[in-house]
Write a structure and sequence with these properties.
By secondary structure, the chain is mostly beta strands. The chain is built from 6 helices and 52 strands. The protein has 2 domains: 105 residues, Sandwich (Immunoglobulin-like), CATH 2.60.40.10; 669 residues, TonB-dependent receptor, beta-barrel domain (Maltoporin, Chain A, Beta Barrel). It has a 30-stranded antiparallel β-sheet that branches. Strands 9-10-15-16-13-14 form a 6-stranded mixed β-sheet. β50 and β51 form a beta hairpin.
């Protein structure tokens, strides 16, 4: 017994000494260009003999912690693709925590953006699960919106209808500074000023800590923050020249705007506020041809006329972060915007009906249709976040509340000669409330990092839709096309994700469980449509440093594209003279399985990447047409059985000359959709190859002059009932800087066309056994905009204005 006790005491004593001789090493990694934390930087602890003892990735705050380290002398190395490697001096580890402080990584010289002289950032970066693009390289977007920035990213395309596609997939989840928004992507991105954006992250296979929503993946918009202590101001003013092509539109287009950004950073406070206003009208024209067959009659109604847009938006974005203590941070963000859009379609129709047996004309009428569609809304978002560091744990609590007052309507007027033969007015009001709560923890474990958490989110819309026809001097509500609708979505989820580095391999593996419940209630007929499901969404990402600046990446995951309330709404809307639009309350969500692998190569003056990817979609949602009557098509949303997409993505950037920078991104894929049936029609599906590319060049041919050229191209694309034509938009921008870049003037030439190239045009064609429709939409070309940008901090530095010395010091 005594011997056992003695041995136990000796073991305890030995362990105590060993533990007492163990310590820890911690620190933070930031980007040298803007002092922003760098997530997923690879950090390795190296012993004196050169052996790597342990490796890990930095967390969302750029921090790392090596715990339970034996006493000794070590070196810490820091790596990030596209950045110069960094090393600490010798670190002596004893029984305490050694803080190596903040390590700043600098972008490798060959990748630096040529636009700014100081504080330069790499135009693009490749990380474990994402590609990151610096917004400053897209000069043609200055004065525009976030949507203008996004459309220039490789493998991302925006068609004439404003629909965003990532590698050909139209569903996308948008984040603003890592926080999801409830609004549809186009609406939200159209409200954020391009000048307010620092970078855009493109995440194709997001990890488990992110929402699984978004068929194509995630776009994370990172806004600018203060990069130095004190106050800084940036002002941009924009004006548009008169239209070169107005297509005989009724009103002249107006284009002007401006934005102001203010940043303040001192001690524990980091504050930013951005204000913007943009009026951006667009002239346009459309021509179309439709025919329908009912019984033994075929009706043709070709059309042509104006299709123009009057639109403006203005708003405020504010963010404040306060450091409560060394281990506590709190932040609050506020977003408030108003958006307004009128779409005027003044169309001339020439209708005629023939007897299919004899071929003789049995009826006809020519008339004028004026269709004014209005969409507007006020949008508000409040974001609260609290972070607490306790030992090896980084605890987080986030609450986001979103409100949108969405309303509008359509006036549809048919005139024969001087007589009004029909006047229809659709109005709607569909406010939205959304709430999100996030609780998370990040903890260092065995050389890696475990992130786990719980999320709750809910949104609700209570819509009122009225369809009125003018009869005599009275406006009569038509019950068949009117109604009230409540729609709600509730999600609860838990997730866990583990990230680690083992020598040259960086990996992330995780899974998310979600319970989803959807309720649609038609109040006027007291009818409920319910849907609920339990789902698991796994994810895996790998990145291997092959040496010689080669890196291999692979990832796989499962995602969901949930239905939006517009697609579910069964109340018909008279979108324009020839179309009724209607949703399906029993529409199913799309479930997506994805996998990809690729290579990244960095060279002296060049960086290249290539990815092969696959996507399988269950229940793909399709917008289809059917015959409602002889001159109206019914546009419906319905599920097909399956869709697949095999693709190759290529891209890169190069600096062949000191004054020339090139960037190119291309995407080629085969898309196939099949298994659609609705009504009395069965469609076998459609399939074809699709490709797109975005290319650009920046020429700094003189010290204060810079020329930027860019082109976005999207080829023909198959739909379940037809085709969408190719869509191409070239742009040119010329920049002249003054006073050491404190002021610059930028001339933009958007949608450039010299000749008849079909720029900024898109034809949409669909057909069935009893109808055919094709419409060519022509959007305004050769738009000229002039921007003047003032960096007030640089101006003050140049002017060397007098300031108080002794008074400021005493104050």
């Amino acid at each position: 017994m005594l011997k056992t006790i003695l041995i136990s005491l000796l073991l305890w004593y030995g362990i105590s000494i060993a533990v007492a001789q163990q310590g820890a090493v911690k620190g933070t990694v930031k980007d040298a260009a803007d002092s922003q934390p760098m997530r997923y930087a690879s950090v390795s602890l190296i012993a004196e003999g050169g052996n790597v003892i342990e490796g890990q990735l930095t967390d969302s705050l750029g921090t790392f912690l090596f715990s339970r380290i034996r006493a000794g002398v070590y070196t810490v190395s820091f790596k990030f693709l596209g950045y110069d490697h960094a090393y600490t001096d010798s670190v002596v580890v004893g029984a305490k925590v050694v803080d190596v402080g903040t390590v700043f990584l600098r972008a490798a010289d060959q990748f630096l953006d040529t636009v700014e002289v100081t504080g330069r950032r790499a135009p693009q970066e490749h990380r474990l699960d994402r590609q990151t693009y610096n917004a400053a390289q897209f000069q043609q977007t200055v004065g525009g919106t976030a949507l203008d920035v996004v459309k220039n990213l490789p493998a991302i395309s925006v068609d004439g209808q404003g629909q965003i596609s990532l590698r050909g997939a139209s569903g996308v989840l948008v984040l603003i500074n890592d926080k999801p928004v409830v609004l549809d992507p186009v609406t939200f991105l159209s409200q954020i000023a391009a000048n307010d954006i620092l970078e855009v992250e493109f995440i194709t296979n997001p990890s488990a800590r992110y929402d699984p929503d978004g068929k194509g993946g995630i776009l994370n918009i990172k806004t600018k923050k203060a990069s130095q202590a004190g106050v800084s101001w940036i002002v941009n003013v924009q004006g548009g020249l008169p239209s070169i092509h107005d297509y005989g539109n009724k009103e002249a287009q107006q284009r002007y705007g401006g934005d102001l950004s203010v940043f303040y950073q001192r001690d524990k406070v980091d504050f930013s506020v951005a204000l913007n206003y943009l009026r951006n009208d667009n002239a346009g024209f459309r021509d179309g041809d439709v025919n329908t067959i009912i019984d033994n009659r075929q009706t043709f109604f070709p059309s042509a006329g104006e299709r123009s847009f009057d639109k403006y938006n203005y708003g405020l974005r504010m963010n404040t972060a306060y450091k409560l203590a060394a281990n506590q941070n709190i932040s609050i963000g506020v977003l408030a915007n108003r958006r307004y859009q009128d779409r005027l379609a003044d169309i001339y129709y020439d209708n005629r009906t023939i007897d299919l047996t004899s071929g003789s004309q049995i009826g006809g009428m020519s008339y004028f249709n004026s269709n004014l569609q209005n969409k507007q809304g006020e949008f508000y978002l409040i974001d609260l976040a609290y972070k607490l560091n306790v030992g090896m744990h980084n605890l987080g609590l986030g609450v986001v509340y979103e409100y949108a007052n969405i309303h509008g309507g359509t006036d549809n007027l048919n005139i024969f000669q001087t007589d009004t033969i029909q006047y229809v007015k659709n109005t709607y009001r569909n406010p939205l409330n959304g709430l999100r709560v996030d609780v998370s923890d990040e903890v260092s474990l065995d050389g890696g990092k475990l992130t786990y958490g719980y999320q709750f989110r809910t949104d609700e819309q209570r819509g009122t839709f009225l369809y009125k026809e003018q009869e005599g001097g009275t406006s009569v509500i038509i019950p068949a096309f009117s109604g009230r609708l409540n729609a709600s979505n509730h999600v609860q989820g838990v997730y866990a994700q583990y990230e680690f580095t083992r020598r040259a391999l960086t990996a992330s593996i995780g899974a998310r469980y979600e319970y989803y419940r959807r309720l649609l209630y038609l109040r006027d007929i007291d009818t409920h449509h319910r849907y609920q499901t339990h789902q698991i969404y796994p994810s895996l990402s790998l990145m291997y440093d092959m040496g010689n600046d080669w890196a291999w990446k692979a990832s796989a995951g499962r995602r969901v594209q949930r239905t939006n309330n517009f697609e579910l709404n069964p109340i018909p809307e008279r979108e324009h003279s020839e179309t009724l639009e209607q949703g399906d309350p029993n529409l199913l969500p799309e479930f997506i399985s994805t996998a990809e692998t690729g290579l990244v190569k960095n060279m002296a003056n060049m960086s290249l990447f290539a990815n092969i990817y696959f996507q399988h979609v269950k229940n793909p949602i399709q917008r289809t047409n059917s015959v409602y009557n002889d001159t109206i098509l019914n546009r419906l949303f319905t599920n097909a059985e399956r869709a697949t997409r095999w693709g190759l993505e290529l891209g890169g950037q190069a600096k062949p000359l000191t004054w020339l920078q090139l960037n190119l991104g291309g995407n080629l894929y085969r898309y196939a959709v099949s298994g659609l049936s609705f009504g009395n029609q069965n469609e076998s599906g459609n399939a074809d190859l699709v490709f797109s590319f975005n290319a650009g060049a920046q020429l700094a041919f003189l010290p204060t002059w810079n020329l930027s050229a860019n082109i976005n191209y999207l080829s023909n694309r198959p739909t379940v009932q037809g085709w969408d034509s190719r869509f191409v938009t070239p742009h040119l921008a010329l920049k002249k800087s003054f006073y050491k870049n404190a002021v610059y003037v930028l001339l933009q030439w958007q949608n450039l066309e010299l000749g008849n190239w079909g720029v900024n045009e898109q034809r949409i064609t669909t057909s069935g056994s009893d109808f055919f429709t094709t419409t060519n939409y022509v959007y305004e070309k050769n738009i000229l905009l002039l921007n003047v940008n003032f960096n007030l901090n640089r101006i003050n530095q140049l002017l060397k204005l007098p300031k108080s010395e002794f008074g400021e010091k005493e104050f």
